[in-house]
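To illustrate the input format used throughout this study, we show a single complete record. The first block contains the structure-token representation of the backbone; no residue identities are included at this stage. The design step must infer an amino acid for every position from geometry alone.
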């Protein structure tokens, strides 16, 4: 069993009337990359700031390794915690050169090796040629690399990253996050990263903690969360969903569209059937005998994928056709007005008890 690097237990925090964290308990083990994922305002940054010691929790315990760094009696300030911090705005000192910014992160280093440690850290992030430059002379990606070098240079036990790529454009973001992940793995640094971007969390994390309204909703590997979400909130965090009302009868959830197999609900239970756009397939799907007919309202080519707006031929209880969105590889681009057969991939379809979120 790997050693715990960071543990937060029963943490509560309020700002005035706003409850930012409600009984939050999370754990991060040696060498693990964990992402806090959730919508804006759900308490992710507050959790990270409390882990860092920038904020003191009103209730609960924070441990780094085997040491309690915060509880009702103790509160170790951020500078006395062996952590690295990287924020979205990089927070480099504008009046300090690249090397001095990194050396600032080593100001408590008593080994007399601060200069060489700072140079090593800058080499790790491929910024060794920029030692004498100032932050305003660097691109966003370069500044983020320096911020990372500054955080890594003291070899922290735990790295805390708050939306570290959100200031970068999409292509640079993919490149930098790939580099950062390799670097964190190479250093074996336990990392807690905050993001609202599910794809980013899936790319980076060994474990994702999904939060909403200051609470943990589900913890699991990216695949567990994607394929076994506990409710439609978690399913929806990975993208748009098609939703249908259903009623369980035996081992089926009956909807206006088609019947879906269910196992765990009693007859008469009202359910919500949730289908990812990727669950709808316009080509025959091996092993799927669930399908329906629909009219193509509109097709849009998005590059690798196409996005298709469908309207079911059958109607719901209010006598309306059911609108659905479907995503297919871009070569499938039916014309408006075409009638298509839509196959349903059951693995991407989830049935949840209605009003039990
Ligand atoms: P996230 O990082 O998920 O966007 P935050 O942790 O920043 O969420 O915020 C959680 C809640 O606490 C939000 O409702 C936010 O408005 C509130 N909040 C955060 N910081 C402060 C603050 N310094 N003063 C008052 N309210 C705050």
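Output of the design step:
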């Amino acid at each position: 069993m790997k050693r715990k690097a960071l543990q937060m237990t029963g943490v509560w925090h309020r700002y005035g009337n706003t409850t930012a964290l409600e009984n939050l308990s999370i754990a991060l083990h040696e060498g693990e990359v964990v992402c806090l994922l959730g919508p804006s305002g759900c308490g992710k940054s507050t959790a990270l700031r409390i882990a860092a010691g920038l904020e003191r929790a009103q209730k609960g315990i924070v441990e780094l390794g085997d040491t309690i760094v915060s509880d009702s009696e103790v509160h170790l300030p951020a500078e006395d915690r062996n952590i690295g911090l990287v924020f979205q705005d990089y927070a480099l000192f504008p009046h300090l050169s690249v090397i001095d910014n990194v050396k600032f992160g080593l100001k408590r280093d008593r080994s007399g090796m601060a200069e060489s440690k700072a140079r090593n850290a800058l080499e790790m992030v491929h910024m060794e040629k920029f030692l004498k430059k100032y932050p305003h002379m660097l691109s966003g990606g370069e500044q983020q690399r320096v911020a990372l070098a500054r955080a890594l240079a003291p070899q922290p036990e735990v790295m805390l990253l708050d939306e570290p790529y959100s200031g970068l454009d999409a292509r640079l973001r993919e490149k930098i996050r790939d580099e950062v992940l390799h670097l964190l793995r190479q250093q074996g640094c336990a990392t807690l990263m905050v993001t609202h971007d599910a794809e980013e969390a899936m790319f980076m994390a060994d474990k994702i903690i999904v939060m909403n309204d200051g609470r943990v909703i589900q913890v699991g590997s990216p695949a567990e969360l994607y394929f076994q979400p506990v409710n439609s909130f978690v399913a929806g965090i990975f993208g748009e969903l098609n939703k249908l009302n259903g009623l369980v009868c035996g081992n089926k959830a009956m909807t206006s569209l088609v019947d879906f197999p269910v196992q765990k609900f009693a007859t008469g239970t009202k359910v919500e059937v949730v289908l990812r756009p990727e669950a709808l397939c316009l080509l025959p799907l091996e092993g799927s005998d669930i399908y329906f007919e629909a009219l193509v309202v509109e097709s849009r080519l998005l590059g690798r994928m196409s996005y298709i707006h469908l309207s079911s031929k059958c109607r719901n209880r209010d006598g309306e056709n059911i609108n659905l969105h479907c995503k297919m590889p871009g070569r499938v681009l039916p014309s408006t007005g075409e009638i298509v057969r839509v196959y349903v991939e059951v693995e991407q379809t989830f049935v949840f008890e209605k009003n039990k979120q």
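Structural context for interpreting the output: The CA atoms of residues 109 and 231 lie 48 Å apart. The pocket of adenosine-5'-diphosphate is lined by residues 15, 18, 20, 38, 40-46 (CB under 6 Å).
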